[in-house]
Design a protein that fits this description.
By secondary structure, the chain is α+β, with helices and mostly antiparallel strands. The protein has four helices and eight strands, in the order αββββαβββαβα. InterPro entries: SNase_OB-fold_sf (IPR035437), Staphylococal_nuclease_OB-fold (IPR016071).
């Protein structure tokens, strides 16, 4: 095997070691999350970058994920559901922290927070898994990106 192939083969194990961080003392938040399915939203996941937590609507400020509620194409909806489901799983893995950086709220009144566990952003995990992108200050053309990836 070449060095390049060895590095690629080792990548999943390195990522697992990097992102499977235990909770720290700062990780004091905990709840059981599920996808939001009703109008009464207390603690649930709307999509890959928006959650309700204890009655507060929170936008993960460090990432952007495909839309579920108004996708521009079927591929965006599919990737959006995958991002939502993965975020549900990540949030349910244990305690986490909510970190404010920059503005406290967005123009829609959502709290802007980075969700971390063991100092690692859960959003960064979604980016690494191809389910999100780093926040660029605007929404992206997911349909175009996903079509190019095929």
């Amino acid at each position: 095997m070449t060095v390049h192939r060895l590095a690629l083969a080792a990548l999943p194990f390195l990522l697992l070691a990097t992102f499977s961080q235990p909770a720290t003392a700062e990780d004091a938040e905990t709840a059981i999350f599920a996808p939001c399915t009703t109008a009464a939203r207390i603690t649930c996941v709307v999509d890959g970058d928006t959650i309700w937590y204890r009655g507060d609507k929170i936008r993960l400020s460090d990432i952007n994920t495909p839309e579920i509620s108004q996708p521009a194409c079927p591929a965006e909806a599919e990737r959006g559901r995958a991002a939502r489901d993965r975020l549900v799983a990540l949030l349910n893995e244990g305690p986490f922290s909510l970190e404010a950086q920059g503005r406290a709220t967005d123009r829609y009144g959502r709290q802007l927070r980075i969700v971390r566990r063991g100092g690692i952003s859960l959003g960064a995990i979604l980016v690494n898994e191809g389910l999100a992108e780093e926040w660029q200050g605007r929404r992206s053309d997911w349909c175009g990106q996903l079509a190019l990836a095929r």
